[in-house]
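Journal club prep, shared notes

We agreed each person brings one worked example of a sequence with its structure written out as tokens. Mine is RRM domain-containing protein. I'm keeping it raw so we can talk through how to read the token line rather than staring at a rendered picture. Sequence first:
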Amino acid sequence: LVYDRETGRSRGYGFCEYRDQETALNAKRNFNGFEIAGRTIKVDSARK
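Then the structure, token by token:
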């Protein structure tokens, strides 16, 4: 998770790494739009 340096609160997003592209694509397919603790998550590839 990424936190605000001043407040210490979560900025509402984070990053994760997968062992291979297939695992990353499966996570994207299965968890994009998934609801956690009442919030819908977005799973997408990082942009440079």
